[in-house]
Amino acid sequence: MAEYLASIFGTEKDKVNCSFYFKIGACRHGDRCSRIHNKPTFSQTVLIQNLYHNPQNSAQSADGSHLLTTTTVGEEEIQEHFDNFFEDVFIELEDKYGEIEEMNVCDNLGDHLVGNVYVKFRREEDAEKAVADLNNRWFAGRPVYAELSPVTDFREACCRQYEMGLSNMSQNWECTRSGFCNFMHLKPISRELRRELYGRRRKRMSRSRSRSRSYDRNRRSRSRERKRRSRSRERRDRRSRSREKDRKDREERVGRF
Ligand SMILES: [Zn+2]
Ligand SMILES: [Zn+2]
């Protein structure tokens, strides 16, 4: 019996524990769920709820007038806005609390998942520190809400259809539930940023704390260089005009801790 219970723990067959909370760290029923949400006492993963605000979503309005204005926010700007947000949060959390194994941001639209940021630290102690500290903070004008999350395997938490759509770059595989799917739809960062944040970590982590500070500073200026280069390639003509504006916009939209 005990073996059977262990084998179904957190699955759909488990009538006591909520499989959504167990796998995805968030369930649409929230506190009113009829099954138990087992909040972990220790975990490597921190969930920061509703942290990322996609400007595409906030531009949507009930009367449909957003349809006329969406063309002004291009895919490229959205990606850049997201990359900036991701990089800022990643670097600040890693500097303050410790090495991050992976960080993921939900692109879902349902209230319990929209803009959720999952940060998996290498060490449980760092996750604990982060939760305690983050709950006293504000981000982009709103209080931050962070908790330890049971999610450690993001493959299990992700929507298969959505993942296949991303890897095939094909519209045919779109998840039929689109943004209101209850599995994670993770918003991808650009390849350049992925390489930058995850690619150099071995080298970086072997450095001492004091040296890593100056290393980070170099890394930051390299990152600025990367952004400048990509901008100049794509928008050479309006570069000088847009750089100052980008910086201001970014501070406004992305916000800061
Ligand atoms: Zn539930
Ligand atoms: Zn889906």
TrEMBL record:
Residues 200-212, 219-242 have a biased composition (Basic residues). Keywords: Metal-binding, Repeat, RNA-binding, Zinc, Zinc-finger. InterPro entries: Nucleotide-bd_a/b_plait_sf, RBD_domain_sf, RRM_dom, RRM_euk-type, U2AF_small, Znf_CCCH. Residues 44-151 form the RRM domain. A zinc finger (C3H1-type) spans 12-40. Residues 197-257 are annotated as: Disordered. Residues 12-40 form the C3H1-type domain. Pfam families: RRM_1, zf-CCCH. This is Splicing factor U2AF 35 kDa subunit-like isoform X1. It comes from Limulus polyphemus (Atlantic horseshoe crab). The gene is LOC106462836.
